[in-house]
Design goal:
- The structure is a single chain.
- By secondary structure, this protein is an alpha+beta fold.
- It folds into three domains: about 5-95; about 105-255, no CATH class; about 275-410, Rieske Iron-sulfur Protein, CATH 2.102.10.
- Helix content is about 30%, strand content about 30%.
- The protein has eleven helices and 29 strands.
- The protein has a five-stranded mixed β-sheet. Strands 4-5-6-11 form a four-stranded antiparallel β-sheet, with no helix packed on it. Strands 7-8-9-10 form a four-stranded antiparallel β-sheet.
- The longest helix is centred in the first third of the chain and has 31 residues, at about 35-65.
- About 40% of the residues are buried.
Length: about 400
């Protein structure tokens, strides 16, 4: 074996070490490494130096081979493998495939309805200033993260296709100017690396893995575009043009039946035995307050439009509107009062039993003694897949079905 051939093989090995651990497919086996802050730094930032070294080594090997009388078969095969690794990385590397949207484009609701139709699923968010925003969930599946940097209450929206979970985080404090890369999925939930603070964040935990960087959540709701317009007609809607990467990525997931709620397919092994009290991909509204977790199945909201409950010492109202398409969770406390509600005569409105004031499903008091008051929305996981919620919150209570968990030992 000649020196140029050995250098070419070395270049292939270096490029594979730099690129492959950060690509879809390989992540299936190494995701726990990427999910750690040290692993993310190694693979998504320091690996660049390995790639530069590999390219320089291959270039020098080609120079030496050309001066030594030509390219051997082994050298050509090595060069082909090198090109293959680079090509695979271009199509499959998460840093290239899942670049966050930092300069979003928003359109009017009417324009969005014309473009996407009334049944399009959106992630609805009310920022700290009371402004409504909607994000087309289908378009958020690939980048996973969309910034909303304008105004006095900026935030970023995150969407995990594996868990059907969305959560928004306020851009403030140490998280005011995050530099984010998607690193992996841990037990079917997205993990991103925040370069400024050098930490990995799991969406289901809403904080860095070591707890050093807690993120303040901004409540989100998953519903149809038509339902969102009926309640927030002044909202803007984020959109972007479809790219070839979208088609490639969604076809890849569709092949594995990840998106289909009727499919039993899951991508990553579970952390705990599977909880079979509800269907694997049943949608639930997951609430976690002061160490207490509870799931509210969609069926419960269909049966009881107004659910009164308490989780972690907080009195809750789970309200379903627009035929349970829109489901929000509120704190029932207004000032010194803890309110209870019943349905009003108007569509989807309600009346509190304490003062007789009328309220809209958006939590706004629109008439009566408490006119102008607002219910505080509770940040929760809206219509998340049950198997992911129960895996991160083993033994979670279920509203209306307080039973002992039925567990399956198979965790994959």
């Amino acid at each position: 074996m000649t020196i140029p051939e050995m250098m070419a093989i070395g270049a292939v090995l270096l490029s594979a070490l730099a690129i492959l651990p950060g690509t879809l497919g390989i992540l299936m086996f190494t995701n726990r490494v990427e999910a750690s802050a040290s692993g993310a730094r190694l693979i998504y930032f320091r690996a660049m130096w390995l790639l530069v070294a590999a390219i320089l080594l291959m270039a020098y090997a080609a120079f030496e081979a050309s001066g030594a009388g030509g390219f051997s078969l082994l050298f050509k095969l090595s060069a082909l493998a090198f090109a293959g690794v680079l090509g695979f990385g271009f199509f499959m590397h998460t840093k290239l495939l899942f670049q966050p949207i930092k300069k979003p484009i928003f359109i009017s609701l009417d324009h969005a309805l014309e473009k996407f139709g009334p049944d399009e699923e959106v992630v609805g968010i009310i920022d700290d200033d009371g402004n409504p925003w909607a994000f087309v969930a289908r378009l958020a599946r690939r980048p996973h993260i969309v910034y909303q940097p304008s105004g006095d209450a900026p935030f970023l929206m995150t969407h995990c296709i594996l868990a059907h979970s969305s959560m928004a985080y306020a851009l403030e404090g140490k998280f005011a100017n995050p530099d984010i890369s998607i690193t992996a999925a841990l037990s079917n939930n997205m993990v991103f690396y925040e370069k400024t603070n050098q930490c990995s964040v799991i969406q289901m935990h809403n904080q860095s893995r070591d707890g050093a960087l807690p993120l303040r959540t901004v409540p989100t709701v998953a519903c149809s575009l038509a339902a969102w317009k009926a309640l927030y007609p002044q909202s803007k809607v984020w959109m972007r043009n479809i790219e070839w990467r979208d088609i490639f990525y969604l076809k890849l997931l569709a092949r594995a039946d990840v998106i289909d709620p009727k499919s039993p397919v899951m991508v990553y092994p579970l952390q705990h035995p599977q909880d079979n009290r509800l269907g694997m991909k049943s949608n639930v509204n997951g609430v976690y307050i002061n160490g207490e977790a509870k799931a509210y199945p969609i069926a419960a909201s269909l049966a009881e439009r107004l659910i009164h409950d308490e989780v972690g010492g907080t009195p809750l109202l789970v309200i379903a509107a627009q035929d349970a398409d829109f489901i929000q969770v509120y704190d029932r406390r207004v000032g010194e009062r803890t309110l209870s509600f019943k349905s009003a005569e108007g569509p989807d409105n309600m009346v509190d039993n304490e003062t007789g004031s009328e309220w809209s499903p958006t939590g706004q008091c629109i008439g009566g003694e408490l006119s102008g008051a607002r219910l505080t929305p509770i940040a929760h996981y809206n219509k998340i897949f049950w198997y992911v919620w129960s895996d991160y919150h083993p033994g979670s209570a279920i509203y209306g079905a307080e039973t002992t968990p039925e567990l399956t030992e198979t965790a994959a």
